[in-house]
Amino acid sequence: MALVDIHNLTRIFDVSKPWLNRVVERREKSYLTAVSDVSFEIAERSVYALVGESGSGKSTIGKMLVGLLGPSSGAVEIRGIDLARESDAAKIDAVRRDIQMIFQDPFASLNPRWRVRDIIVEPVAARGGDTDGMAERLLEQVGLSARDAGKFPHEFSGGQRQRICIARALASEPKLIVCDEPTSALDVSVQAQVLNLMSDLKDTFGLTYLFISHDLTVVQHMADRIGVLYLGRLVEEADPDALFDDPKHPYSQMLLAAAPQLDSFGRDVPPPTGEIPDPINPPTGCAYHPRCPLAAEICSQKRPEMREIRGARVACHMAE
Amino acid sequence: MTPILSIRDLTVEIPTRHGILRPVSGVSYDIAAGEILGVVGESGAGKSMAGNAVIGLLSPPAHIAQGEIHVNGARIDHLEGDAMRRLRGKEIGMVFQDPLTSLNPLLRIGDQLTETMLAHLDISRSEADRRAVAALEEVGIPGAAERVGSYPHEFSGGMRQRVVIALALCAEPSLIIADEPTTALDVSVQAQIIALLKKLCRERGTAVMLITHDMGVIAEAADRVAVMYAGQLAELGPVRDVLTAPHHPYTDGLMGSTPLASRGKDRLHQIPGAMPRLDALPEGCAFHPRCPYVQDACRVSPGPRIEDGAGRAACLFPMTREAVA
Ligand SMILES: Nc1ncnc2c1ncn2[C@@H]1O[C@H](COP(=O)(O)OP(=O)(O)OP(=O)(O)O)[C@@H](O)[C@H]1O
Ligand SMILES: Nc1ncnc2c1ncn2[C@@H]1O[C@H](COP(=O)(O)OP(=O)(O)OP(=O)(O)O)[C@@H](O)[C@H]1O
Ligand code: SF4
Ligand code: SF4
Ligand SMILES: [Mg+2]
Ligand SMILES: [Mg+2]
């Protein structure tokens, strides 16, 4: 059984103006569908990556997975337990303990007035667990020194702070870590250190990652399975080699062609056309149809279903 | 031929209570007409400081302490106030990461374009109006004739950056300084903006300083690349040579730590540690505590500096390899 089973997951935000403005301006309520009917599974001890451009719904899915946001419809099941519907508090608690999250900004996510030791053990201490020597041990595991436990966050560089965030996430011995752009704020040499560390920890502790990123090369390096999102919809899911060698969805094809490569000297490819549409009024049918070179009549009328194509799952009427 | 921009031994200093910091130290390079020079390096390497020194936008107490900057053969590093402002816009256009820093939120974009042109070019109001529409068309704003009447907030981030490029180019400057112009944008929009910059600069022979931390963008857009480390120039050379066969151990480490399709899932190469802070620069070569090839001499001598023409890397023991064709 997969560790995580996400099915028909949808999240709608009410983005209406305040009531009085609506009355005066005679406007309807407006809603933004940040995640729309997304289904996928994450196998135990694997790295599942979500890629997509800004606003495609990556973080919203991550937050629903850890329970920071509730779904509007559909469900997230972790080992068969649906956090939003489960009533047994003990089961909810056990699942919660198994999931941790690491955020993009290692500066914002550490309390500047706390010592590193207290930051790291906080999730465990809050449950009354034993934290003796825990911070020191974890600091060494993430490549820092036990002596760092007594220091404050401002004494560390960006990469070191992200290591502290990782140590904190590891404190409660999670099974699954949702990593939301964990290296986007870091320089490449530091990013390499953090990515290597994450790979090592995964092997050591048998972790599973949901790895959120907009950087295709990082995703290709880290992932076992990749989901591509566009306007809140999963448009393609495939193994890295299949996705990068043979992308099947026209949006994946565009994304891969647009990403600059280290060996693309003086490359002159025609850049992609169009822009990401307004998510409050998304295009009908396939959301990509106004920009898609393959678009046919059906594309603006009917939303494509997920289909299996050579080991990939693709939501496109035309892909083959 | 005289280069459009020539920087010689540029040093920027910031006096502090604990001593003088040098965010840019003895940097020299040229940019020729029609050439894109990529400036890369990690955060804090001094890329923006060097760019800001050229356009006279250093915020005090940072100041140019040494060296010379020439644009089209004229020395500009001592210019102040109005003289500098005239030069910006006329000779030098600017594109920053956040397009809103370059746009006036209260002015229609057409007016911003015409004002800039009228300030720097000897043309009539109606000619400026005509050129404003043409400039927006050129950068790919759909419905340019109507959009001249729109305000900056009515555009998406990518469209705003196009407007900024139109604004930077409208007075026909000979040099563009683009500081992380696509860092805040999605990859598909980034590809559009980079293609646009390349096309316009090639057509007009504009020299471009393209500051970015993204090696992929450099590979795709730049003709030559300058690699900065701790305020100094570590390596300078043709982009293909520097990226495929680095001479400086730092460049080599940077390339190794970048995930690459062809490397698959192998462990990434790691440079140990992090770039030193300006108030704690090591003696000798600034890279020596992290360098796998360090020798005793590196700990005392800062190594050779790169002057144009001589050597590619500021390293006592450069790696000598052939570029991949
Ligand atoms: N609390 C909220 N209220 C209203 N709209 C929201 C809220 N959170 C997210 N959204 C919208 O939902 C969509 C998806 O946002 P999300 O943050 O999940 O995207 P993302 O893929 O993580 O993007 P990024 O790469 O920029 O982080 C966006 O259009 C966003 O504006
Ligand atoms: N007022 C100041 N006082 C002290 N140090 C400063 C000041 N302003 C900038 N610095 C330092 O100058 C150095 C150079 O900064 P600069 O902005 O040029 O870096 P950069 O290469 O553009 O980095 P990034 O990629 O983050 O934009 C940094 O180490 C920065 O901390
Ligand atoms: S369904 Fe149609 S519009 Fe959508 S990606 Fe496929 S071909 Fe293009
Ligand atoms: S001078 Fe020495 S320490 Fe510095 S980069 Fe070269 S070999 Fe390494
Ligand atoms: Mg996000
Ligand atoms: Mg900068």
Poorly predicted sequence stretches spanning 5 or more consecutive residues of chain A: none
Count of DSSP helices of chain A? 10
How would you sum up the global shape of chain A? Answer: globular
Tell me the radius of gyration of chain B.
Answer: 21 Å
Roughly what is the average pLDDT of chain A, rounded to an integer? 91
Biggest sheet, spatial arrangement of strands of chain A: 6-7-8-3-9-10-12-11
Structural class of chain B: alpha/beta
The total beta strand count of chain A reads: 12
Distance from first to last alpha carbon of chain B:
28 Å
Shape type of chain B: globular
CATH class of the largest domain in chain B: Alpha Beta
Bound molecules: adenosine-5'-triphosphate, iron/sulfur cluster, magnesium ion
How large a portion of the residues of chain B is in β-strands, by DSSP E? 15-25%
Overall average residue pLDDT of chain B:
90
Number of E strands of chain B: 10
Q: Which protein chains make the most extensive interface, counting residues with beta carbons within 8 Å of the other chain's beta carbons?
A: A-B, 43 and 46 residues
- Could you estimate the helical fraction of the residues of chain B in percent? 25-40%
- Sheet of most strands of chain B: 6 strands, mixed
Biggest β-sheet: strands ordered side by side in the sheet of chain B: 6-7-8-3-9-10
